[in-house]
Design a protein that fits this description.
alpha/beta, Rossmann fold, 6-stranded parallel beta sheet
Length: 220
């Protein structure tokens, strides 16, 4: 394989969780009395960041006690209270299987917490596809490259062995900061034009496109 390991973002890349993230963040902000109310677009814009970084961006000037409470309320809404569906994007499971069968190792680099990732691993049944994963509460938030550097170290690979796949500027900047090739997907949280300034090696309109490209580029 040209890329022996493919590192995926989770939300907006493998799973359509945008509506749930936005609703839960809006409800959490209401719970703690944050004003003004958070707009859909403002919350959509921070998808991919670690939770503290996302809240500080959404709520400038928030004090630490209110931030902590908002974090707790968001986690409760997302992990326990919400029934908002989070379907996999089309062809995701089949695509992961195709990559794994071709000999590619797969990993996850996500802004989710470990608890959140473990829950969606269980709900989707996808955990067995991934050799390694790193969550925002275990390391520095995107776009700091530490998350990718730690994954490479764990998997005993060099940066040229890997490619990062994501739907946001944070994913693209994460990979750029690590010196890693990157693939942008156009169906997630951030507008495609925002991703192109990071010069992805490929841009996919659907998940099957990026799998086809990865397999094809390895045959050349």
């Amino acid at each position: 394989m040209k890329y022996p390991v493919v590192i995926f973002d989770w939300d907006g890349t493998l799973i359509d969780s945008e509506a749930r993230i936005v609703l839960c963040m809006q409800n959490a902000a209401l719970d703690v009395g944050w004003q003004p109310a958070l707009s859909y677009e403002s919350v959509r814009d921070i998808i991919g960041l670690g939770l503290p970084e996302a809240i500080r961006t959404l709520c400038p000037g928030i004090d630490e006690s209110q931030l902590q409470l908002l974090k707790e309320r968001y986690s409760w809404h997302f992990l326990e209270a919400s029934d908002q569906a989070m379907p996999l994007f089309p062809d995701v499971e089949e695509g992961l299987k195709r990559l794994q069968t071709a000999g590619c190792r797969l990993a996850v680099a996500t802004g989710k917490s470990r608890r959140g990732l473990n829950q969606v691993f269980e709900e989707t049944g996808l955990a067995h596809y991934f050799s390694a994963s790193r969550c925002a509460d275990e390391t520095r938030s995107k776009p700091d490259p530490m998350m990718l550097n730690e994954l490479l170290h764990e998997m005993q690979l060099k940066v040229s062995d890997a490619v990062m796949v994501g739907d946001t500027e944070f994913d693209m900047a994460l990979a750029e900061n690590a010196g890693m090739d990157r693939i942008a997907v156009n169906y997630g949280a951030h507008h495609p034009e925002r991703l192109q300034k990071y010069h992805p090696v490929f841009t996919a309109d659907q998940f099957s496109d990026l799998v086809d490209w990865l397999l094809d580029v390895s045959r050349r």
